[in-house]
Structures are given as C-alpha cells and as structure tokens.
Amino acid sequence: MNTMQADNLVPKNSSSCAMNPLNLEEFKRQGYMVIDFIANYYQNIEKHPVLSQVEPGYLKELLPKSAPFSPEPIETILHDIQNHIIPGITHWQSPHYFGYFPSSGSIAGFLGEMLGTGFNVVGFNWMASPAATELEGIVMEWLGEMLTLPKSFLFAGNGGGVLQGTTCEAILCTLVAARDQMLSQVGKDNIGKLVVYGSNQTHSALQKAAQVAGILKKNFRAIETTESTSFALSPDSLRSAICSDIEAGLVPLFLCATIGTTATTAVDPLRPLCDVANRYGLWVHVDAAYAGSACICPEFQHFLDGVEGAHSFSLNAHKWFFTTLDCCCLWLKDPKALTKSLATNPEFIMNNHASNSEQVVEYKDWQIALSRRFRSMKLWLVLRSYGVDNLRSFLRSHVKMAQIFEELVVSDKRFQVVVPRNFAMVCFRALPLAMGNKVYENGMGNKVYENGNKVYENGMGNNVYENGMAQKITDDQHDQERSNQLNQELLKSINASGHVYMTHAVVGGLYIIRFAVGATLTEDRHVFTAWKVVQEHLDAIIGI
Amino acid sequence: MNTMQADNLVPKNSSSCAMNPLNLEEFKRQGYMVIDFIANYYQNIEKHPVLSQVEPGYLKELLPKSAPFSPEPIETILHDIQNHIIPGITHWQSPHYFGYFPSSGSIAGFLGEMLGTGFNVVGFNWMASPAATELEGIVMEWLGEMLTLPKSFLFAGNGGGVLQGTTCEAILCTLVAARDQMLSQVGKDNIGKLVVYGSNQTHSALQKAAQVAGILKKNFRAIETTESTSFALSPDSLRSAICSDIEAGLVPLFLCATIGTTATTAVDPLRPLCDVANRYGLWVHVDAAYAGSACICPEFQHFLDGVEGAHSFSLNAHKWFFTTLDCCCLWLKDPKALTKSLATNPEFIMNNHASNSEQVVEYKDWQIALSRRFRSMKLWLVLRSYGVDNLRSFLRSHVKMAQIFEELVVSDKRFQVVVPRNFAMVCFRALPLAMGNKVYENGMGNKVYENGNKVYENGMGNNVYENGMAQKITDDQHDQERSNQLNQELLKSINASGHVYMTHAVVGGLYIIRFAVGATLTEDRHVFTAWKVVQEHLDAIIGI
C-alpha cells in the first residue's frame, strides 16, 4: 500500500503539523492519501473476515495509554488504522455483508459527506447557512414525490420534511409532539395515563422514545403478532388493546406502524390501522426505516396504501438509499405540532431579519438538537449522481439477488423460507430434520438421517422432507427447541468463518437467519457464495 | 477552477454513473476532484461575504422542481454547488468569521470524518464494529486526562465517556437518567413535581431537554444572573430557588452549570454550586460546550475546580477542538444511571457472545439513538495529528487574538468591553456617547459629539469619555435603549458588508456584540481588519 511505504519518509517527530490545521497543501496531500486509503480498503475488503474476530479489549493493548504530546504524521496514523482498526471493524461495506439491514455506501453519499464536512456549517437556523436549510427543504420535496407520498406530507401541501439523524430521533420528536398535543387537551398532569402502541415486531426505537418522553413503562404496548399475519400488526388486535386501555381510564396516544419490520420485513397494514387509530384520536407514525426506500419503485408503492391516514412518516436514507450514516428522512403533515413542542427561541440566534419575518423554516425547532450538519448535501448528491431511474435499478438488483437466494433456499429441502419475502431480505432456517439422527436420536432415528443426506446429495428421497415440516414454521415445542439450537449453531459457525455475515431474529419463538441484500458492492456471485457457505456449514454440523 | 472547466467533457446525459455506486476508479477520480474543490473553496473563502446575502427562497428558483430521472455528472453538480450553494452559505470556516462560537475545522477532523464515512459502520453495539466502540472508550480516556477530569469520570474510575452528537443530546440523556433515578425514589406519578435549574444564561438546550423529558414548563427555572457576578449563576440564588420549590412541595431534580456561557462565556462557580445541589440531592451536569476545550491548557483548568461534585460533564469538540460537526464529548460518574434509562435489549442485536459476557461497553444504551457513527475516528485523528502541545498552542493563539481585539476595543474610548474576557471571545459595545448629537440631541448636544470625534481622531478629549459611562454597563433606561439601538444598527451594518461576521447577545438588558475568535484560518491580520471594519461602520453611522 502506497501510504504505508511512505512511512519512512516522514520522521515520527515531524512537526509539520504545527502549521495551520487547514494548510491547503497539506489538506490536498493528505486528502488524496485518504482517498487512496479508502479505495484500497474497498479493493481489498473481501480479504477481511466480514465479522470482526477480535476479542473484547483488544485495542487497549495496541494503543498508547494517553494522547501524544507531539504531532504524528498521517502516514503513521494510517498505518495504525490498517493494522489496528481495520481488524476490529465488522465490514458493513463488504459484498459478503448480509447482516441487520444494509448500510449502503456510495460515491455520491461519500462525496456529499465530504462537502458538508468541508463547509462545516452549523445550520441551526436559516441565517446560519441559508443553503443548508433550503436544500434540505428541496430534496425532501423531491424524495417525497419520488415515494408518491400524499401532498399533505410535503411543504407544497402545508406539511414538510426534515432530515434527522436516525429513526430513534424521528420517533422521539413525533411522540413528544403528540404527547404535548394530547396533554394540552387532557391536562398536563395526565402524562401517566398516556399509552403508546406498537407490535412486538416494532423497532426498539419506539420503546426508547417512550422511555425518554416520560411515558410509563406499564403504558407501553407491544401487541402480539402471529404467523397468521406474517407478523404484521392486526388492526383488530390494535382496536382491542385501545378499547381495553380506554376502559381502564387510560389515554391512547401514539401508534407506530412499520413498513418492513426489523426481524422479517413484515408490513403493517396502514389503511385499516390508521382507520382504527384515527377513530380513537391517536397520532400515527409510519416507520419505514429500511423498506421505505423501495417505495421509489412503482411496484412497491402499494405498501404505502393508506399512509394518508398517518401523521408522520420516516425512512433511513442511510440504510438502503446509498446515503452514508446518518440520514433519516421524516415527513409530517403538521410541522407546527412538532415545533410547538421543540421550539426554543434564544435571543442569540433568533433576533434576525429572516427569523423575524417567519418566511423561513427554522429546522432547529424540528429536532432534538440545536446544531445541524449539512446532511441534505449527501442526499442531494445521491439523487443527482444516480437519478431516479438508476436508483430504482440499484434497489431492484438487490431484490433480484434476494430472490436468487430465496430460490436457492427453496431448492434445498433441508431449509425453509420462514416468512414471505417482501423486499431484499430472506428469512430462512435449517429444518431440524436436517440434523438427522443427531436430532432424532429418540425419534425417527438414523433412517431419516440417511435419507436426508441422500436427498441433498442426489436429489432422491423427497418424501422424507415433504412429509416433514417444510410447510409450517410453528413446530411443536420439542422440535422448535431443536430447530433453534440448530440454527443458532449454524449461524455462529457461518459468521465465525468470516466468509459472510448474517444476523438472526426470533419470531413466534423461532430462531431464524436473516439474509439482507443491500451492501453496495454485492453482486450475484456473492449471493451464490453465501449460499454455498450456508450449505457447507450445515453439512459440517450434521456431520456429512 | 479546474473542475468547472471539465464541464464540457462529460455529456450531461452520461450514463457513467449507472455502474456500481462504489466503482473504485470513479471513487478516486471524483474523490480527488472534491478534495480539490474544497481546497479551492478554502483558498478563495475570503472572497465571499461571510454572512450569506441571499434572500429567503432563493434556491428554489435555481433548482429543478424534481429529482432528475437520469444521472448527472459530478462536474455539473460541483458547478451548481459553486454557483448556487456557496452563495447561500454563511462561511463558518472563513478567517473573518467571529460569530456564535467557532466551528473549527481541521485537516485531521476532516480526514477522520472521511475515514469514518468510508468504513460506514453502524456501531450500535460492540460486535457491530468492535474498533468503533473501543476507540471511543480510549479517546475519551485520553481527552478526559488531558482535561484533568477527576478519575471518577473515567472508565479507569468506574465512570466513563461517550461521544454524542450535540450538547442537546448529552443534556437530554443525563436529564432522563436523573429523572428516572428520582422517580424511582419519589414515585413514578410525580414527574409533574420535578424541577430543573439553570440560569438565564444557560443554553436553550436545557430548556429543550426539559420539554422533551416531560418536565413541566412551570417547573423550569432560569435563575436570574446579574452584572455583579459577570452573569454567572450565584449559589445563593440557586439555594433560595431550591428552598422555595421544596416549600412549595416540588422536587428539585437537575442543575445545569455552565463553563463559558453562550452570551458572554461566563463561568458558573462549580464548587459552591455543586455543594448546594448535592445538599438537596440534585444531579449536576456541567455544560462546557465551548470553553471545555480550553481546559487542556493548565492555565484554564482552574475553571473546572469543583467539577468532582458534578455527575456529568460535556464539551463540544466540534466547536473549538478542530473536530468537525458533530462531536459532543460526555463523561459521567455513573454510566449505569444512564443505561438504566436508555437501554433496550432487542433480540436481534443482543444475543451475541460479547454482549452476553457483559465485558464490553454497549454505547447504544448511552444515547438517544440506536445507530452510531464512527465519531471517535475524527477525535483520534485530531489528537494524534496535532498532539497535546500543538492543540494547546492553537487554542492559546485564539486567546491571544481575542486579547489583541480586546486591547483594540479598550484603546478606542467610543467602545467598551462589557464583561471580563475569559477565553477567546470579547463582548463589547459602542457607547451611546459615540453617537454624539444624534443621540444626545436633547442632552449634552453637539459639544460632546465634537469632543467625541476628536478623542477618536487625535487622542484628545479623554475626559469626556472618562466622565461618561465607560465604567458601568447598566446605563439608565433611556441610555440603554439608545445603546441597544446603536449597537444593533452597528452590527447589522458590519454583517451586511460581508467583510466580517459577528453575532450578538443581550445580557442585563444590554445588546452586546460578541467577537468570538476560533475559526481555524483566522490570523492576527484578520483581527485587525475586523476591528477596522467595526470602527469604519461606527464612523459611518455617526456620520463622520
């Protein structure tokens, strides 16, 4: 690596850094060097185990006990990053990364981050950098239209969009707005009566937001979902939870519905849920953190049917939209409800012509923090550099790769696709039958095991599996424990290999493996490799 | 500009971007281009008016109504940034920027941001990227030691540090921790009794955090400060506010003390404040957002005297520590109080060896959001690239420049330094006498005016000013209104010129101009220029 070879050229105690910290020659020299370093990282990314294999505390052993007194040259620092940091990274940008949800990087997202960082403005209000505020408003209109969000969520329809850091912040902000709106009706002393609803598949962001906003833990409802709805929230369950809370003298406040749950990408049915929620006066937030991006493609937009009944909608452009962390897009129908709760008007930033004129959006009042990064820059670069057409193609290519993987799973009868695939993630498991006599030592025994292997090896013996449990996921208790143990072991083995990285979920008591396509560098061949790894590790576990 | 000239070389409808969004050749080509673009921006930054002069809505007129269907080349995008975005930027990186507090960029901070963005890991828990968690723990120990924070705030003393986005988040997190700790003692239904304390100089972050955390507005105390304490919070005032709340049946909860207030960089006396607060069981958070950085220099560390009595301490490395936005450093004595309030343990990220072993820090439970950027990278690069010695020198050079400006203000008797300068910010105003007969048309009249000018022009006539109001800042009501009007007009005129940018504050009813040194590119000559601009604009206003 070039940057490494330069090590010897600059003495360790070089005081070259004592010059101005924005010296332009150094800025360019070191800037190019880091561009090369990162390009090199991407080029060689497949050489690293995807899941970092270091042990807790590893870095403390490698770094000095305190900050250096004298400057160190960039060459030394990059050398340490190569040798000490990279081994401790779980490589979210690796084409072999299929864990959690993607964190899809891109050139445009990266450059946007560079430009925003280069300007390094603190755009809390319009005047602090008009372009930051205005560009944000504009790209949020662009993206809202790409998603076919109802006009009521756009500035053009008296709603509006804002960039937050993460969904956690977006949910907290909207929950606080809903809370204060409700308390102004029912009395400020009734915070202890407010109830927040999600399903047991809703992201933990809702629970955290509720905790922060002062909602009592006993008033947090994680409504049960089942396989019968593919783990989507049932409007009937919501209604009955709301009704029993009302009977108990509580005040239903807030529903978080999800388009693409974390565990299985389940889609909560927006229209009937909003109908129920609106009947009882709840604020509905739609969390489309992962799957929202797909809705720029016409074929996915039906998942948003009924969103017009919601109050707010968010997606994370930093997940599956090529915009580096962090970049959560939040739209609201009634931004005033938000600013009423979050506005502060300190003299030092308020008394200026633009703010006084009320002609401008003051985004500081749309979020938790005062200070704001220039996040719209990266989203703007992504939209312009790729264009709507390519962005759709990129997302579709991920969906296509997930379909390929799904077909591979289906074709091997030792495995099962656990829930319908909605987007670019496949939830699957190895069936306990695959473990043969190890599993069924006091059940069907060796015969099944031997048949099982034959099925896999020569395509014979289908009956064993067809009579097995491939069509249902709710095994009896005994089977389920075996299945969970098997899949836990399988995933651990796969990830320890470093060849690919996948993560798990537990739904309906069942431990499943999630295969989420979306890392930008992933191609078809990586999907085939991943499947081969899965099969090989199962082979090893069952002792083929 | 090179990047601009390339415009014609790449056809607008080039589909070169349809390739993989992380194509390495393009990554390097475009990466270098953006490095050049930003270097060029810094090189020419003095050519732009510091405060953007655009009008609300300007950008909407310049950009298309919707996102492009087809990709656009980087050259076109950079061209638009140059022509449409830069004019809308208030140039926080300009050497002529003296507004608010600095947002001091640096090569190291920028490169750290690039590297973190390049890896683009989502380090919510240890396993999601061990290096991100471990490096954060390490640099927070380094920086804590540089500040001579008591060991009880460091991991080595069972406390610990975490990087948050902004002070708003840091205060919200600690307030929520304090709230829940108190509610577990006094009963969860008593949230309406909890009282939060700051001074009328405390940053609005406290008010916002209190609003979000569900503290009633009527229970938020912004305790009056006066000139007699240079606008620092008086322990006696705190005690009396606490006592009267207790008498009223309320529950004192939280005090936010400030090292370096936003308006005037006042320093609240930590030791006596903590004594009072601890006697009544309050959580004390110390907000050293701006001035904390200075405490890496021995000569400023006395401002931290008594911090051992506080529960948490934060500073913004993105203000005056060369680490680009956002990077708030928070240390706590009892991280468990924080994680008790903020922890969520969803199956999908928790069930792994490291988390289960409890050997590792899980930073997701130390903050509002789940997802976490690799912020420690930039702080690490800043510490290593410059070293403790240089970092102190940089900060001292800013303090020295503020001293120069202070001396210039003092040397012109038409002006006054309003409060003692503690760090690198000077608070000053033009005295109403300077306006001569315009101000004193029915007072002392022309004679004073003429003397006034002579003082300025030839160094004579001192008596007029010495007998004037240079020694007190609390003018009578009539004078104060005149003074405020004059200084408001003066600042507006200065900023409209685009030559420099300063902002204002109002303390004790007095409108003052803040001159905050800290933009990385600022040198002595920029300070002299700034002072010349101030004088010229006053000359113009008073009609010389």
From TrEMBL, chains A, B:
GO biological process: amino acid metabolic process; carboxylic acid metabolic process
Cofactor: pyridoxal 5'-phosphate
Coiled coil recorded as keyword: no
Taxonomic superkingdom: Eukaryota
GO CC terms in record: cytoplasm
InterPro entries listed in its UniProt record: Aromatic_deC, PyrdxlP-dep_de-COase, PyrdxlP-dep_Trfase, PyrdxlP-dep_Trfase_major, PyrdxlP-dep_Trfase_small, Pyridoxal-P_BS
PROSITE patterns found in the cross-reference section: DDC_GAD_HDC_YDC
Similarity comment: family membership: Belongs to the group II decarboxylase family.
Name the UniProt record assigns to this protein: Tyrosine decarboxylase
Species in which this protein is naturally found: Dovyalis caffra
Lineage: Eukaryota, Viridiplantae, Streptophyta, Embryophyta, Tracheophyta
